[in-house]
Amino acid sequence: MNDPIVGTARLKRYNTARVLDELRSGGEPVRIVEIAERTGLTRSTVATIIEELDADGWLRRHDPLGALGRPAARFSVTPERFHVLGVDIGLHRVVAEVADAAGAVIAEANALHEVHDGRELLRLVNATVDRALAAAALERDGIAAVSVASVGMIDRAEGRVRVIRGIDAWTDLDLTRELGRGFGVDVDLDNDANLAALAMSELDDCPPSFLTVQWGERLGAGLVLDGRLYRGPLGAAGEIGALMVTDPWSGERATLEAVVGAEHIDEIARLVAARDPFTRLASELGAEAAAAHVFERANDGERAATEIVDQLADVAARALAPILLALDLHRVYVTGGIARGGDVLTAALERRLTAIGAAPIEVRLSPFAENTVVRGAVTAAVRSAWESALDGGLGSDARTRARRSAR
């Protein structure tokens, strides 16, 4: 026999979650009557829930609009109710961001590096995280959710990187355990391209299905289908860097990553510059910055740079077109270090992809530039924290985390 008390408590928790979800998703402060209309709940039910949430510190009260009659107060979610942490562990840069319940970044720390030892990199990551938390005046046990991005193929269930090049012993580490020390929540580890795609999905005009190409020294893709990030049963969806293509400069078969990655772009630019001293393609910057320099020169109209970009776009388009055609995708986002190159790459890719496909394909650069992955990590952490809160976590545990966050 069903317990009516349990049933009533479950219904109240469900209705509370609906009201809170409406408050946080709307963006603007709203009145009780508006929440009732949007949720289908009665005004008295919403008023009772609002009163309880307000007393428990979940809401911020705003002055009424207008001066005629009896204008009602408006409410929004208190951003400081909890805080989350997003981390991007790249081959040459580590960045950590602390954000509030609305996803607004309140503190950030980063470190450029050339570390190839996994244990040493782990120490650098933890130090960077501690600097970000210190800047936000927070402690680890006051964080409601943690999302970490890493290059490589990720086993999310085990919390490990299964396949990676460039970081020794990184696959030997239990990263979720090592990075989770001191936190009161589990660390969520994901692939950098997946989290870059998650960041793009938050853009106002983003379509429900699209492909994101995380393009730098390494190459990967994040796939979103009908609004959901698709990782595949083994977490290997989007590993486009391993696709075999023909190198237009050598004529040999190689992986897509080896042909269009930043290191190869830098090598080609140096070879062209060595043959033609009048070009300004050579750069003493790191590979990704040097590759971006090639695109900048192409944007300025330099012929040699334009030819390199055209070749790169042709190779990339031939590799991406079958994926886009098979899944009927018409939007591609380019993120990572190469995205600093500007519109010349997107234009070249659009021309080739549209020529190959049955319908126009739009290529856009990430508006978050080199911080795209960490923005995706913050997005994932905010979503996780809200899911916990809306799934019955509005009680003492959530209040305790909020008080710790506010210290």
Describe the structure.
- This protein is of the alpha/beta class and 407 residues long.
- 43% of the residues lie in helices and 20% in strands.
- It is built from 13 helices and 16 strands.
- It has helices at residues 4-26, 32-39, 43-55, 118-135, 175-179, 192-201, 256-260, 262-275, 287-299, 303-327, 343-356, 372-390, 396-405; strands at 59-62, 74-77, 83-89, 93-100, 105-112, 143-150, 153-155, 160-163, 187-191, 210-215, 219-225, 228-230, 244-246, 253-255, 331-335, 362-365.
- The strands form five sheets. A five-stranded mixed sheet has the order 5-4-3-6-9. The protein has a five-stranded mixed sheet with strand order 12-11-10-15-16.
- A hairpin with a 4-residue loop joins strand 4 and strand 5.
- Residues 395-407 have low confidence and may be disordered.
Concise structural overview:
With 407 residues, the protein is of the alpha/beta class. The chain has helices at residues 4-26, 32-39, 43-55, 118-135, 175-179, 192-201, 256-260, 262-275, 287-299, 303-327, 343-356, 372-390, 396-405, and strands at residues 59-62, 74-77, 83-89, 93-100, 105-112, 143-150, 153-155, 160-163, 187-191, 210-215, 219-225, 228-230, 244-246, 253-255, 331-335, 362-365. It has a five-stranded mixed beta sheet.
